[in-house]
Amino acid sequence: MKFVTIIGARPQFVKAAAVSRIIRRNHQEILVHTGQHYDNNMSEIFFDELHIPKPDYNLGVGSGSHAKQTADMMIGIEEILLKEKPDYILVYGDTNSTLAGAIAATKIHIPIVHVEAGLRSFNMNMPEEQNRILTDRISKFLFCPTNTAVENLKAEGITQGVYDVGDVMCDAVLYYEKLINKNGKDYYFNRLEKLIEHNNPESWYLATIHRAENTDNIEKIYEILSAFEEFDEPVIFPVHPRTKEMVLQVMNENSFKNTIITQPVGYIDMLFYAKNAIKIVTDSGGLQKEAYILNTPCVTVRDQTEWVETLNGNHNILCKPNKKDIIDKVFNTKTDMENKNNYYGNGDASEKIINFLR
Ligand code: UD1
């Protein structure tokens, strides 16, 4: 089988690390990086650390409006598909790179394999929700990470080509988790590129906030950072480039001291901070689930989550982007650590996907 695989944004590099390893055992893969994420610590570091093969094509699309970014990707991907003539195009998740790959392929009748199909937040204002619904509608093979995702597709009348295989991100967590503790804490703290001077803590909370709905408004960033000021231990906060300016402005204007602002960190370092954190506060989809798999309680600053299974036993709890609610949820939530299921599989989702296609 010959695949053209489309990746472009941080979480897709992690997913590709798991799936490409399996594809390349017996099949051919042409890897296309759209260039949606282009900073070294948003992109290259993942390829180096996770041993992802070098992309065969890099479209270098970069930032832009949704339409421009998606359109530029579509033009580049169509050319590659016409030249490479793959059996399948493989797209991951819900980013603009996912949608661009799917639309380019469907028009020229190349079957679409969608990995991480069927997730829904039921919030059509999110670009991710638009991207995943449109991609699922035109995909031939829909590999779902959970049974909830299968049911979501069924409710939309999509039942053909739908397979519940488990989550490829879980494959990655279980594979790389083995590597993280052998270096010791100092190793990871020495690698932290802090944007504001701060001593290393003995224990910490971990935060990431990057969704448009939380970061397009400086008031929300203020609320979130002022909540962190009240935490009993420092908060490590690797900032996405889109939020960096506003975060630094709020930190400086208010002389906030309890948050350790850093550059984005690589995947394996992130697993270390996540596994050893007291709690995680995030609006990332991937990190909520990584928290669940790594046994770290999580507070998600969003109105909905696609990963509804994490809410059972309060392993994850939703909260508003305001100071009072964040403090309330972080300090007054009891997590039932005894009660956990492996909703996301056993680390063999990538194998199952390639076996099904074969
Ligand atoms: C994208 C995905 C989101 C995913 C996230 C993971 C879409 C619509 N959203 O959001 O689902 O959770 O990636 O990180 O595809 N920027 C840089 N350097 C980079 C990349 C981005 O400075 O390497 C800045 C640019 O100012 C850009 C902004 O971040 O305009 C947003 O980047 P974009 O790729 O459009 O979306 P994300 O917010 O990263």
Structural overview:
- With 358 residues, this protein is an alpha/beta fold.
- The chain folds into two domains: 2-164, Glycogen Phosphorylase B (Rossmann fold); 176-331, Rossmann fold (3-Layer(aba) Sandwich).
- Helices cover 45% and strands 14% of the residues.
- The chain is built from 15 helices and 13 strands.
- It has a seven-stranded parallel sheet, with helices on both faces. Strands 10-9-8-11-12-13 form a six-stranded parallel sheet, with helices on both faces.
- Helix 1 links the parallel strand 1 (2-7) and strand 2 (28-33).
- Helix 4 runs parallel beside helix 5 (127-138) and helix 10 runs parallel beside helix 14.
- The longest helix is centred in the N-terminal third of the chain and has 19 residues, at 66-84.
- The mean pLDDT is 96.
- The structure holds uridine-diphosphate-N-acetylglucosamine.
- Residues 9-11, 36-39, 42, 63, 94-96, 127-128, 210, 241-242 line the site of uridine-diphosphate-N-acetylglucosamine.
